[in-house]
Amino acid sequence: MKIFVITKKTGALCLVCLILFLSLVYIGKSDILPVSGAKRDLPIYCVQKPETEKVVALSFDAAWGNEDTGQLIDIMKKYNVKTTFFVVGGWVDKFPESVKQLHDAGHEIMNHSNTHPHMTQLSVDKMKEEVEKCDNKIQKITGVKPTLFRAPYGDYNNAVVGAMRDTGHFTIQWDVETLATVGNPCHTRG
User: Fold this and answer.
1) DSSP code of 153?
2) 56: number of CA atoms within 13 Å, CB side?
3) pTM score, two decimals?
4) pLDDT tens-place string over residues 80-121
5) Which residues of 65-102 are buried (b: 16+ CB within 10 A; e: fewer)?
6) What is the widest separation between alpha-carbon atoms in the chain?
7) What's the half-sphere exposure (Cβ side, CA atoms, 13 Å) at 145?
8) Is 172 helix (H, G, I), strand (E, B) or coil?
Protein backbone atom coordinates (compact mmCIF):
# COMPACT_ATOMS: atom_id res chain seq x y z
CA MET A 1 0.00 0.00 0.00
CA LYS A 2 1.34 3.40 -0.98
CA ILE A 3 0.42 6.59 0.77
CA PHE A 4 0.57 9.87 -1.04
CA VAL A 5 0.89 13.07 0.94
CA ILE A 6 -0.63 16.10 -0.70
CA THR A 7 0.87 19.38 0.37
CA LYS A 8 -0.41 22.82 -0.58
CA LYS A 9 2.12 22.94 -3.41
CA THR A 10 1.36 19.49 -4.86
CA GLY A 11 -2.37 19.95 -4.24
CA ALA A 12 -2.42 23.17 -6.23
CA LEU A 13 -0.47 21.52 -9.03
CA CYS A 14 -2.89 18.55 -9.07
CA LEU A 15 -5.87 20.91 -9.16
CA VAL A 16 -4.43 22.90 -12.08
CA CYS A 17 -3.70 19.65 -13.97
CA LEU A 18 -7.24 18.36 -13.30
CA ILE A 19 -8.83 21.59 -14.52
CA LEU A 20 -6.66 21.57 -17.64
CA PHE A 21 -7.50 17.90 -18.32
CA LEU A 22 -11.24 18.42 -17.84
CA SER A 23 -11.15 21.52 -20.07
CA LEU A 24 -9.47 19.58 -22.86
CA VAL A 25 -11.95 16.72 -22.53
CA TYR A 26 -14.88 19.17 -22.59
CA ILE A 27 -13.59 21.04 -25.63
CA GLY A 28 -12.81 17.79 -27.42
CA LYS A 29 -16.36 16.48 -26.96
CA SER A 30 -18.20 19.75 -27.40
CA ASP A 31 -19.76 20.85 -30.65
CA ILE A 32 -19.31 24.43 -29.50
CA LEU A 33 -15.56 24.60 -30.17
CA PRO A 34 -13.66 22.05 -32.21
CA VAL A 35 -10.42 20.72 -30.70
CA SER A 36 -8.39 22.67 -33.24
CA GLY A 37 -9.76 25.89 -31.76
CA ALA A 38 -11.21 26.83 -35.16
CA LYS A 39 -14.24 29.07 -35.09
CA ARG A 40 -17.60 27.33 -35.40
CA ASP A 41 -19.53 28.16 -38.56
CA LEU A 42 -22.91 29.38 -37.27
CA PRO A 43 -26.14 30.11 -39.09
CA ILE A 44 -27.78 33.51 -38.87
CA TYR A 45 -29.85 33.75 -35.70
CA CYS A 46 -30.54 37.44 -35.50
CA VAL A 47 -29.71 40.61 -37.40
CA GLN A 48 -29.10 43.55 -35.12
CA LYS A 49 -30.88 46.75 -36.10
CA PRO A 50 -30.64 50.25 -34.62
CA GLU A 51 -32.63 50.58 -31.41
CA THR A 52 -34.94 53.08 -33.13
CA GLU A 53 -35.91 50.54 -35.81
CA LYS A 54 -38.42 48.11 -34.29
CA VAL A 55 -38.45 45.03 -36.54
CA VAL A 56 -39.41 41.39 -36.14
CA ALA A 57 -38.65 38.68 -38.67
CA LEU A 58 -41.45 36.14 -38.59
CA SER A 59 -41.05 32.75 -40.23
CA PHE A 60 -42.89 29.47 -40.52
CA ASP A 61 -41.65 25.99 -41.37
CA ALA A 62 -44.01 24.16 -43.73
CA ALA A 63 -43.34 20.44 -43.74
CA TRP A 64 -46.61 18.62 -43.08
CA GLY A 65 -50.20 19.82 -43.49
CA ASN A 66 -51.61 23.03 -44.95
CA GLU A 67 -54.91 23.27 -43.04
CA ASP A 68 -54.07 26.74 -41.72
CA THR A 69 -52.31 28.23 -44.74
CA GLY A 70 -55.32 30.12 -46.09
CA GLN A 71 -56.15 31.51 -42.65
CA LEU A 72 -52.52 32.57 -42.12
CA ILE A 73 -52.54 34.40 -45.45
CA ASP A 74 -55.77 36.22 -44.50
CA ILE A 75 -54.51 37.21 -41.05
CA MET A 76 -51.19 38.48 -42.38
CA LYS A 77 -52.95 40.42 -45.13
CA LYS A 78 -55.28 42.01 -42.58
CA TYR A 79 -52.30 43.28 -40.55
CA ASN A 80 -50.05 43.97 -43.55
CA VAL A 81 -47.45 41.44 -42.38
CA LYS A 82 -44.98 39.74 -44.68
CA THR A 83 -43.11 36.65 -43.56
CA THR A 84 -40.82 33.86 -44.73
CA PHE A 85 -42.06 30.33 -45.22
CA PHE A 86 -39.37 27.66 -45.14
CA VAL A 87 -40.93 24.81 -47.14
CA VAL A 88 -39.96 21.19 -47.61
CA GLY A 89 -39.91 19.85 -51.18
CA GLY A 90 -42.46 17.16 -50.28
CA TRP A 91 -44.80 19.91 -49.03
CA VAL A 92 -44.33 21.77 -52.31
CA ASP A 93 -45.27 18.56 -54.17
CA LYS A 94 -48.44 18.09 -52.09
CA PHE A 95 -49.56 21.71 -51.92
CA PRO A 96 -48.29 23.64 -54.97
CA GLU A 97 -51.37 25.88 -54.83
CA SER A 98 -50.45 26.95 -51.29
CA VAL A 99 -46.90 27.77 -52.39
CA LYS A 100 -48.33 29.90 -55.21
CA GLN A 101 -50.83 31.62 -52.87
CA LEU A 102 -48.11 32.45 -50.34
CA HIS A 103 -45.82 33.79 -53.03
CA ASP A 104 -48.60 35.81 -54.71
CA ALA A 105 -49.46 37.31 -51.30
CA GLY A 106 -45.90 38.68 -51.10
CA HIS A 107 -44.35 36.21 -48.69
CA GLU A 108 -40.90 34.73 -49.17
CA ILE A 109 -40.76 31.04 -50.01
CA MET A 110 -37.43 29.59 -48.91
CA ASN A 111 -35.79 26.19 -48.56
CA HIS A 112 -36.27 23.71 -45.69
CA SER A 113 -34.77 20.71 -47.59
CA ASN A 114 -36.46 18.26 -49.92
CA THR A 115 -37.27 15.41 -47.50
CA HIS A 116 -36.68 16.92 -43.99
CA PRO A 117 -33.66 14.79 -42.97
CA HIS A 118 -31.16 15.38 -40.19
CA MET A 119 -28.68 17.24 -42.37
CA THR A 120 -25.69 16.50 -40.13
CA GLN A 121 -26.10 12.80 -40.90
CA LEU A 122 -25.74 13.33 -44.67
CA SER A 123 -22.68 13.65 -46.85
CA VAL A 124 -22.01 17.12 -48.23
CA ASP A 125 -23.13 15.91 -51.68
CA LYS A 126 -26.45 14.64 -50.24
CA MET A 127 -26.95 17.93 -48.36
CA LYS A 128 -26.52 19.86 -51.60
CA GLU A 129 -28.84 17.47 -53.44
CA GLU A 130 -31.56 17.97 -50.78
CA VAL A 131 -31.40 21.73 -51.21
CA GLU A 132 -31.12 21.79 -54.98
CA LYS A 133 -34.16 19.51 -55.43
CA CYS A 134 -36.25 21.72 -53.16
CA ASP A 135 -34.96 24.90 -54.86
CA ASN A 136 -36.04 23.56 -58.26
CA LYS A 137 -39.56 22.80 -57.02
CA ILE A 138 -39.96 26.24 -55.45
CA GLN A 139 -38.52 28.04 -58.47
CA LYS A 140 -40.82 26.15 -60.85
CA ILE A 141 -43.87 27.54 -59.02
CA THR A 142 -42.67 31.00 -57.93
CA GLY A 143 -40.04 31.85 -60.52
CA VAL A 144 -37.68 32.73 -57.66
CA LYS A 145 -34.65 30.67 -56.58
CA PRO A 146 -34.41 30.52 -52.77
CA THR A 147 -31.37 32.07 -51.11
CA LEU A 148 -32.19 31.12 -47.52
CA PHE A 149 -32.10 27.68 -45.91
CA ARG A 150 -33.35 26.47 -42.55
CA ALA A 151 -32.06 23.08 -41.43
CA PRO A 152 -34.74 20.59 -40.39
CA TYR A 153 -34.87 20.13 -36.62
CA GLY A 154 -32.39 23.00 -36.29
CA ASP A 155 -29.75 20.32 -36.96
CA TYR A 156 -26.61 21.96 -38.32
CA ASN A 157 -22.84 21.88 -38.05
CA ASN A 158 -19.93 23.44 -39.95
CA ALA A 159 -20.44 21.04 -42.87
CA VAL A 160 -24.12 22.00 -43.24
CA VAL A 161 -23.49 25.74 -43.08
CA GLY A 162 -20.56 25.42 -45.50
CA ALA A 163 -22.50 23.24 -47.97
CA MET A 164 -25.37 25.71 -47.97
CA ARG A 165 -22.96 28.57 -48.57
CA ASP A 166 -21.55 26.60 -51.53
CA THR A 167 -25.06 26.35 -52.99
CA GLY A 168 -25.65 30.09 -52.60
CA HIS A 169 -27.80 29.91 -49.44
CA PHE A 170 -27.59 31.68 -46.11
CA THR A 171 -28.42 29.27 -43.29
CA ILE A 172 -31.09 30.79 -41.05
CA GLN A 173 -31.93 29.66 -37.53
CA TRP A 174 -34.65 30.85 -35.20
CA ASP A 175 -33.82 32.71 -32.02
CA VAL A 176 -37.23 32.67 -30.33
CA GLU A 177 -39.52 29.67 -30.49
CA THR A 178 -43.28 30.09 -30.31
CA LEU A 179 -43.39 28.00 -27.15
CA ALA A 180 -40.37 29.69 -25.57
CA THR A 181 -40.64 32.35 -22.92
CA VAL A 182 -40.14 35.91 -24.04
CA GLY A 183 -36.66 37.14 -23.37
CA ASN A 184 -33.83 38.76 -25.24
CA PRO A 185 -35.03 39.20 -28.84
CA CYS A 186 -31.60 38.19 -30.18
CA HIS A 187 -30.42 35.39 -27.92
CA THR A 188 -28.53 32.43 -29.27
CA ARG A 189 -29.68 28.95 -28.37
CA GLY A 190 -26.78 26.95 -27.07
Assistant:
1) G
2) 6
3) 0.69
4) 999 999 999 999 999 999 999 999 999 999 999 999 999 999
5) ebeebeebbeebeeeeeebbbbbbbbbbeebeebbebb
6) 81
7) 8
8) strand
